[in-house]
Amino acid sequence: MKVYRICKEIYSQDLTGTGSKIVGGRWNFKGVSVLYTSGTVSLCTLECLAHFPPAFAPKDMALTIIEVPEDSIKELTTYDLPEDWRTVPPPKRLKDIGYHWIKRQEHLILKVPSTIVKEENNYIINPFHKDFSKVKLLETLSFEFDSRIL
Questions:
Q1: Are 65 and 37 in contact (CB under 8 A)?
Q2: Most distant CA pair in the chain, distance
Q3: Which residues have C-beta within 8 Å of that of residue 131, sequence separation ≥ 6?
Q4: How many other C-beta atoms can be found within 10 angstroms of the C-beta atom of residue 53?
Q5: Within 13 A of 103's CA, how many CA atoms are on the CB side?
């Protein structure tokens, strides 16, 4: 299965989750590495735009296409999540869910609904899982945000 990530070109080869470790995220505490990816390029674009003002979109971006195995995915649906799961800032409960998923080491990937388009999914990858070697960076492409959305 292919998943997608948009990041600064300088970090496009790094699949270790260093960025999320430094700043934390909806599904991880600061100090915990995970790799955030999306199921489509369009969702990945929206997820990026949600994290910075469009007028300040970096110019040196890359789209990474990553292949992940489908046999180690823990799926969460909207029914599995607290009622306030889409709020900003995210409730601590989501970080707790992510922490326990990582700690159990049962699944390489956590499939979660996107807060932006809840009918689509993001895929969070645990870079310290025993099956992480099955994650393959297939391709890195230069990426520009369309000027109409900036």
A1: no
A2: 43
A3: 69, 72, 108
A4: 8
A5: 9
Structure confidence at residue 54 as a pLDDT band (50, 70, 90): low
Place of tokens 């609904």: 113
d(CA 150, CA 19): 24
User: How many other C-beta atoms can be found within 10 angstroms of the C-beta atom of residue 140?
Assistant: 16
List the structure tokens of 16: 């270790």
DSSP the chain: -EEEEEEEGGGTT--S-HHHHHH-BTTB-TT---EEEESSHHHHHHHHHTTS-GGG--SSEEEEEEE--SSSEEE--GGGS-TTTT-SSPPHHHHHHHHHHHHHT--SEEEEE-SSSTTSEEEEE-TTSTTGGG-EEEEEEEE---GGG-
**What would the pLDDT profile of 12-44 be if each residue is shown by its tens digit?**
999 999 999 999 999 999 999 999 999 999 999
For residue 150, pLDDT over 70 is answered with no
pTM score: 0.95
The reported pLDDT for the residue numbered 55 is 66
Q: What distance in Å separates the CA atoms of residue 32 and residue 136, rounded to the nearest whole number?
A: 21
Size (the chain), residues: 150
Q: What are phi and psi of 83, to 5 degrees?
A: -55, -35
